[in-house]
Amino acid sequence: MTMAPSSVTINAQTFSVPAGLTKLSVGLSPGDTMRGTISRGGADVVCVHPEGYSFEANPRAYNFNAFVASSGRNSFTEHAFVLGNAQ
């Protein structure tokens, strides 16, 4: 959720988003990690790069729980959320 129009970059794909909640989607390839940034006015507002996340193309066992990571200055500011299949 952003407080004002922003640029959101997820794994090197950049999107322009309005203020508020926006649903975005990017493709994954085996071995990919996740990285997200919210930028405004040429400055990064929020960055998230969760440790321990790696996309598995053919896992031995499936885990249908989402992997969730967040980043923010405090509970009242913008947050970047990264979702995927946790392994």
What does this structure look like?
The protein has 87 residues and is mainly β. It has one domain (6-85). It has no helices and six strands. The chain has strands at residues 6-10, 13-17, 36-40, 43-48, 66-71, 80-85. The chain has a four-stranded antiparallel β-sheet, with no helix packed on it. A two-stranded antiparallel ribbon has the order 5-6. Strand 5 and strand 6 (80-85) form a beta hairpin. The radius of gyration is 14 Å and the shape is elongated.
Question: Topology of this structure?
Answer:
Layout lengths: L5 E5 L2 E5 L18 E5 L2 E6 L17 E6 L8 E6 L2
Antiparallel strand pairs: 1-2, 1-3, 3-4, 5-6
Throw out a few tags for this protein.
disordered C terminus; elongated; 38% strand; four-stranded antiparallel β-sheet; 87 residues
Q: Assign the structural class, choosing from mainly alpha, mainly beta, alpha/beta, alpha+beta, or little secondary structure.
A: mainly beta
The tally of helices reads: 0
Shape: elongated
Poorly predicted tracts of residues: 74-87
Helix content: under 10%
Give the biggest beta sheet. Answer: 4 strands, antiparallel
- Strand arrangement, largest sheet? 2-1-3-4
What radius of gyration results from the CA coordinates?
14 Å
Task: Give the ordered list of helices and strands.
Answer: EEEEEE
Mean pLDDT: 76
Number of domains: 1
The number of distinct β-strands equals: 6
Please report the distance between the alpha carbons of the first and last residues.
26 Å
Q: What portion of residues belong to β-strands? A: 35-45%
